[in-house]
Amino acid sequence: MARRTPTSCDVIIVLGAKQLPDGGPGPVNERRMAEAIRLWQAGHAPNLLLSGGVTTTATPEAETMAALARAAGVPDTALHLETRSTRTLENAVFSIKAMRAQGWREAVIVTDDFHMRRALYCFDAFGVRAQPAKVRNPMSGKIFMAWLREIFGRTIYPRQVRAYQGRW
């Protein structure tokens, strides 16, 4: 099956992921950023919004991703960092706030294939129907466990989303 390429929009949002212990990008961040940079270079959006705060290291995930973008030639004027989120729901909430502040209406979400359904659910719950740009993963034991974790995550997120909607 051919990969579906998103249409043009205002911003490409990349959801953060676990970094290496030294704050460098882990393989998930590298895969997601490679796809986001490919889309940006192809002209699908003029802006990259990198979403991820401090989780496993003292460096926000968004800053780690920004270093990858800069190394690939993305100028700082195209980079926007959201450094507060620590989980998928917060990625959506804080990214949507950033979108609204910039006047952006249309977004492409870049995340792993196993994570996309929950990510889109979170954005949709707050009124943003984003286009998916799934990063495909070859099946391995680690990826299988990620799929299982997502099944669990999808069962608990509706309640968590409702709690955030009450504060929105």
Give an overview in words:
This protein has helices at 27-41, 61-71, 88-102, 113-125, 141-167, and strands at residues 11-15, 47-51, 79-82, 107-112, 131-135. It is of the alpha/beta class and 168 residues long. A five-stranded parallel β-sheet has the order 3-2-1-4-5, sandwiched between helices. Helix 4 (113-125) links the parallel strand 4 (107-112) and strand 5 (131-135). The chain starts with 10 loop residues before the first strand and ends with a helix.
Relevant terms:
168 residues; alpha/beta; five-stranded parallel beta sheet; 5 helices
Largest sheet: 5 strands, parallel
Average pLDDT level: 88
In whole angstroms, the N-to-C terminal distance is: 39 Å
Shape field:
globular
Portion of residues within helices: 40-55%
Low-confidence stretches: none
Identify the strand order in the major beta sheet: 3-2-1-4-5
Order of helices and strands: EHEHEHEHEH
Using only C-alpha atoms, the radius of gyration works out to 15 Å
- Counting DSSP H or I runs of 4 or more residues, the number of helices is 5
Structural class: alpha/beta
Q: Quick gist of this model?
A:
By secondary structure, the chain is an alpha/beta fold. The protein has 5 helices and 5 strands; from the N terminus they run βαβαβαβαβα. The chain has helices spanning 27-41, 61-71, 88-102, 113-125, 141-167; strands at residues 11-15, 47-51, 79-82, 107-112, 131-135.
